[in-house]
């Protein structure tokens, strides 16, 4: 099955009241682990690359890894650019085989965000590539995205409707209380579901996206810390909140931190149990299996099992 765009997948997700997992990829083991989990759950999957991933692994290598995934399974796969910061990056990915790109103009004033997003849409749409945009600012740190908590801005529902109408974007990432990284909440976790309801009322039948939605499960954190990690005080988005959002108009949920925790904990365990181990296959193989298990867990939370 060739790579697909998001339009048809999101319409099915809206109708079926589930969301599709968008998993960040940086290397071969991560993509193999993601695909193994998706295959076992018979779920469509979004493989997404940040600017940091493209810098680390190079666009050309990442594309070939995705081609291998496409050649070895029959699932619907979307190749997505996560947090494209300018038109040139989005254009390069559209030209380079991506089926979906995100233009993140959230750091700009409203009118500038509209103008930048519209420019990307005008380039991508004739080439069959979907465009995700963002309105509002999420707190936290992810690769080249860094926003202090005091600078975070929740999405204005009426502005969201105007933004979508004027830009023509295919999906919209909204800020309702999620944040990037492993340290999302200082107190009790809370998402603004009233705001999410207002947004979807203003944009009926329109696909919404949650960034910064890793759950940072306690078992993964404790597993990592057991073998020498120092990830203290981390708090993620509870899985029941993610499930609730997935039953609304949220069609895409981004997950990165949970995969990082699974990889790190697994590798730490291998080294702790066998300090003489210097064969990467013997510690990256178990890490790949740990990624698979996290992906399966997330797909079930999103209600996406069996939707391929």
Care to describe what's here?
The chain is an alpha/beta fold and 308 residues long. The protein has a single domain (7-301), classed as Aldolase class I (TIM Barrel, Alpha-Beta Barrel), CATH 3.20.20. The chain is 47% helix and 16% strand. The protein has twelve helices and eleven strands. The protein has helices at residues 7-16, 28-41, 51-57, 59-71, 87-95, 110-124, 157-167, 193-202, 218-226, 239-246, 257-273, 280-302; strands at 20-24, 45-49, 77-84, 100-103, 130-135, 139-142, 145-147, 171-174, 179-180, 208-210, 250-255. The strands form two sheets. Strands 1-2-3-4-5-8-10-11 form an eight-stranded parallel beta barrel, surrounded by ten helices. Strands 7-6-9 form a three-stranded mixed β-sheet, with no helix packed on it. β1, α2 (28-41) and β2 form a beta-alpha-beta unit. α2 (28-41) packs parallel to α4.
What is the strand and helix layout of this fold?
Blueprint: H1 7-16, E1 20-24, H2 28-41, E2 45-49, H3 51-57, H4 59-71, E3 77-84, H5 87-95, E4 100-103, H6 110-124, E5 130-135, E6 139-142, E7 145-147, H7 157-167, E8 171-174, E9 179-180, H8 193-202, E10 208-210, H9 218-226, H10 239-246, E11 250-255, H11 257-273, H12 280-302
Number of helices: 12
Distance between the termini: 11 Å
CATH C-level label: Alpha Beta
When the domains are counted, the total is 1
- Mean pLDDT across residues: 91
Strand order of the largest sheet: 1-2-3-4-5-8-10-11
Give keywords.
three-stranded mixed β-sheet, 16% strand, TIM Barrel, 308 residues, 47% helix, eight-stranded parallel beta barrel, alpha/beta
